[in-house]
């Protein structure tokens, strides 16, 4: 029964608001002996950090992560790890307007309706700043995976912004860090840059689709029926701010296929089963097949826009609002490292869960 | 969610295989005093039951549910409820082929790789028969909702089969039980019938998209950050057999929108806030807005098809397979009552969770 | 531990009332490949079964356990196991008296106050019949332990009945199954027989203390801080009906010791560390030392007695009551196999949990 | 309870080591609108703080607690609360001896065996410093109880030190804060002072028994079967460092009673049921009766003593050790506020859990 926690064995609990003194992640069930330090975590946080380029919020946060517990002489001890990120750019600001008005598309109204009060400074707990804690925890998960399952590689990238999609035929993973959109297709990245410039000038924002792929995941991870690998990935991605849809493999498009088209045929290869295709996204019956695990999620356009929208006040009066301030015109961009972090946490959790229940008793085909 | 259990306070644990003696659901955290009996549950099970029409498997199962605990003199006692469904149509059959070969698209291969052995009779635990237990639990959840939140109505229907989509302009909810596809658009239902007849004759199958809508959900349900209403719905739907994508509100299409288009503007109505639109699918920041909660999910085509596919044996030999037997050509059809059941369980769980943490302390706008 | 479930990875959810159609245990997280059948479970249930001798209730229940799921061809499949025991001796009886009156010492009054209604037939869910489900689950846990950690032996016995204690100097484990009290000291068993005959004739009952010892538990099991091995054992034993105290090692008597007396000194032996004594009961910091794990718990006297006691009715009227019927004069006797079962479940759970988080990374002294 | 977390709805996760930069508690499921500030929490932490008198360790820690999240304008927001306590007195010290040797009675050896490495500075995670985080969380729980169930009062005190017990006939709750032992019997407190002076001079330590009583607990709290109020209290108390036994009501002594003696007879009083006695400790069938909830736990003598004991090194060599340093001769003294804190957390958790599942549907006797 848990609200601010996810995971079965590797359990991440996050805390903190956008304008409080700090935020962080309490991480439980960490395997002992994992080599980790703050610089290793910072590497991932820097990817998500605001103010990286003109397409992300100009809030200036170093997002420096501190390890407060669970690590001794450069290794995890197996006890709970506390990762803290202090908020430094809490610029003094007049919050009186958003304290009284609910911003459309934001959780202002529902937090008030649920809790009877809310921290109205910059979204409080519902702010996407919370995802910094996930990226920190994900960094720890990656370090553990590096030791326990060194073959796993996790890569996230943006595949769609507004109606414009990247072209899989042009994908070059080396391009991903070369453009501000984490886009594997350089041409599309250029087009997006133009699209976004226009949108920003018009005081508007836009949605996006992110894809996260994990290679080298061993077959057998996932715990049916309600702890399926895809179930946990769906929950993990849907829990990210502004996400409205999650797909595994062919996703919603699977509806259009026939069974003949959809069948990923199997043949024996030198290192085990090989599949003719990967419509399934690397998961059958909630358990990994050994193929690439492929997840996509859609991020809605940033709700904070410089266009007037109708809304109401806490007192129930009709009014309107423009959300000024430092906002990403495409919040999806910064969701890329977050999606990668969630993938890392879920994979590590299932690796531990599998080891716990099954040990070495899994089946070897042809063995 | 933990392996065979889902839910925070209202917790459902399912058990049973397709060809074992029985299957069922152990339901914990049930509110006491809920009027319930086997006939009330059977109503929902009959909707999912196989053999209803020519588009669903001809396996003949009465799917008669028995209440073995937690109910006394027609009311829930607040203790754990056991709902059991005996398997009666376990026709003696030669399983030697599927015992040795892995059916593409099925969990045969991953269950073997995970567990080192598997119940190969008809899918065992990975069979969609497991969803009967969910429907039974969902019936109990609905009965509780009727008493605790009588305004809630849950309606599921099919909106797409293969590439053909139902037309929202023609939706008439009264049509849903009038056709074998739970389709609110009678014309599309007719077209689907023709489509499916053709597919069946060609030994093929097809995917589908299901939409489940909950009306009358009070504002304030959902528990950020990792127990968001949409997070739990995404997990719930993704856990259903063959589901490959889940959407809330505009879902994946949210990526195509601008912030101006996507904003659900708010105005004060006689009974509280009213929204100009519902791109959000009734959920902001993981918490219900009071609008319709809208979830969609894609079901891949049935993997059991009468067309030969390449596969391998347990021994690692290449071979091929035709999956004979009694199979739904569009397994999505029978996912409709399952999706409704999951929605009911998740809503009840969040209703109890909200009552536990918040009680009456929620905020009243204009109050 | 959550309501009707206990365990972290090996999770047991029980269901059922004393006078409903059946009761049972839904067991999740079972390692695959464990050899098990109904006869193996029945062996343990027969030890707890009522009507074994004149000191236990004369209710005649075969307590025949059925495996409904999760086992295929004599082995666990790794999916959820359902263990069901049908109630057969639900003799038609006039419950009108206990329906209206609350029996002192029983949960009648608190169940009514909590739930607003209750199954008043023989205690309903609060009946000690629920422990049959634990014994069944414990049998499955033992079978798994036999395969995963073959050196573990679990032995329970009664060490005190009323004020009379067994004499550790006379303990002979071979005596345990030779007397109706599971007493390792034959002389005390004889004295208890006389004591209990007198009590029964006077319409009275008496309490007891049970000790459960696990030998061969590897060092390193237990998950600090809130999943300590002793924490989980304390919860497990306290959850048994009528238990009022739990001790690990020296237990409450540890308060009387000085630090010098209490220190279990350590020396290196041929197979690892050896301890000069075991005041700690085999657990330090919540983690097993490799010594015997020693737990004791006190069971209060049976509350159903043939002596009139003052009570009240549901309507709030003063009255009195004699609890007639078939009752154990010392309910502690039948708690012995229950305590063993709980020990088995907790040890298996921690074995899996340790394997999941730590794998082979534990420390070897002198290695 | 799962590893570093306890609680069902009100969930406390602690983190931190004795000699790391900080420790704390991440608290989830907090009801919104609870008035709280750091001074209110500090009040309780000051009670547990070391260096209060000559009977507690002379380590000088201000134990100043900071609220880092979940509180806005003096009220809880319903989101996760982070309570952090920085370690300030980490005096530079030579740990080379205890890095290589295992201190008998401490968790040094088991942590090493479990995790393969350990933070050897002052016990690391197994240090009783972790209980500061519990006291902070308990302070928050008390504030919530004050608003939700204002009649509840929680009082802890020491009832036994070594073999000398306080005399219930002389109990005066006003005496508790008047002596360094939290003893309600002033005469015994004086005798203990003499006892402890002698023990300290001889380089020895001693055990203790603590009793915690909660008055004003409404009838109906507790969630059978595995979330019983007494089950959760047993786990909560057993999880405190050095605790070896837990008792509810008469506890282990219940074994000596007959059923006639043990029966708490019931009569109707002006405000509901009244009981002739409280052998049950205010809990029947795991659910509160409305009487005082009475828990006792035994704390073993401090293992760090100035007397040489035999032990081994990490390399498996026999050696001996004296544990110098600043240690409480009776660690039980400082367990009093910890026991109170755990009681507060468990009661609040069950209050929320009851409200969630049952709401107002509980039974009224005579109503």
N-to-C SSE series of chain A? EEEHEEEEHHHEEHEHEHEEEEEEEH
Distance between the termini of chain A: 41 Å
Q: What is the makeup of the main sheet of chain A?
A: 5 strands, antiparallel
Helix and strand content put the structural class of chain A at alpha+beta
The pair of chains with the biggest contact is:
A-B, 122 and 125 residues
Shape of chain A: globular
Helix content of chain A: 25-40%
Oligomer: homotetramer
Record field, number of beta strands of chain A: 18
Rg of chain A, Å, rounded: 21 Å
Low confidence ranges of chain A: none
Strand content of chain A: 15-25%
Count of DSSP-assigned helices of chain A:
8
Task: Give the averaged pLDDT of chain A, no decimals.
Answer: 94
Sequence of strands across the biggest β-sheet of chain A: 1-2-3-7-4
Descriptive overview:
4 copies of one chain form a homotetramer. Helices cover 26% and strands 22% of the residues of chain A. Chain A contains 8 helices and 18 strands. Chain A has helices at residues 38-48, 96-100, 108-115, 131-148, 186-201, 229-238, 259-262, 335-357; strands at residues 5-6, 11-16, 22-28, 65-69, 71-72, 75-76, 81-86, 153-161, 164-165, 208-215, 243-248, 266-269, 272-275, 283-284, 287-288, 293-299, 309-312, 318-321. In chain A, helix 1 crosses helix 8 (335-357). The first copy, chain A, is globular, with a radius of gyration of 21 Å. Chain A starts with a strand and ends in a 10-residue tail after the last helix. Chains in contact: A-B, A-C, A-D, B-C, B-D, C-D. The interface between A and B is large, with 122 and 125 residues. Strand 11 of chain C pairs antiparallel with strand 11 (243-248) of chain D, so a sheet runs across the interface.
């Amino acid at each position: 029964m848990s609200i601010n926690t996810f995971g079965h064995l590797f359990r991440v609990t996050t805390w903190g608001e956008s304008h409080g003194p700090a935020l962080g992640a309490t991480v439980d069930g960490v395997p002992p002996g994992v080599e980790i330090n703050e610089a290793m975590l910072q590497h991932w946080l820097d990817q998500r950090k605001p103010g990286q380029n003109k397409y992300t919020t100009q809030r200036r946060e170093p997002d420096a992560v501190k390890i407060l517990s669970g690590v001794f002489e450069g290794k995890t001890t197996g006890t709970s790890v506390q990762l803290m990120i202090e908020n430094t750019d809490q610029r003094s600001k007049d919050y009186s307007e958003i304290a009284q008005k609910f911003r459309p598309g934001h959780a202002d109204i529902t937090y008030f309706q649920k809790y009877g009060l809310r921290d109205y400074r910059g979204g409080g707990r519902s702010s996407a700043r919370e995802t910094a804690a996930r990226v920190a925890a994900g960094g720890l998960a990656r370090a553990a995976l590096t030791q326990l399952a060194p073959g796993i590689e996790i890569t996230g990238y943006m595949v769609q912004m507004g109606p414009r999609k990247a072209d899989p035929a042009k994908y070059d993973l080396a391009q991903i860090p070369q453009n501000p959109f984490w886009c594997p297709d350089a041409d599309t990245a250029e087009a997006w840059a133009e699209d976004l410039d226009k949108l920003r000038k018009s005081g508007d924002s836009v949605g996006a689709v992110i894809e996260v792929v994990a290679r080298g995941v061993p077959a057998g991870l996932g715990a049916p029926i309600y702890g399926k690998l895809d179930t946990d990935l769906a929950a993990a991605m849907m829990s990210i701010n502004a996400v409205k849809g999650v797909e595994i493999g062919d996703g919603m498009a699977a509806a259009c296929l026939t069974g003949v088209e959809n069948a990923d045929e199997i043949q024996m290869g030198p290192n085990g089963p090989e599949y003719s295709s990967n419509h399934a996204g690397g998961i059958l019956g909630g358990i990994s097949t050994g193929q690439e695990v492929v997840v996509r999620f859609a991020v809605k356009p940033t709700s904070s826009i410089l266009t007037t929208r109708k809304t109401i006040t806490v007192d129930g009066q009709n009014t309107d609002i423009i959300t000024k301030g430092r906002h990403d015109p495409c919040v999806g961009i910064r969701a890329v490292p977050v999606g990668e972090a969630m993938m890392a946490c879920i994979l590590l959790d299932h690796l531990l869960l599998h080891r716990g229940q099954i040990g070495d008793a899994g089946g070897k085909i042809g063995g």
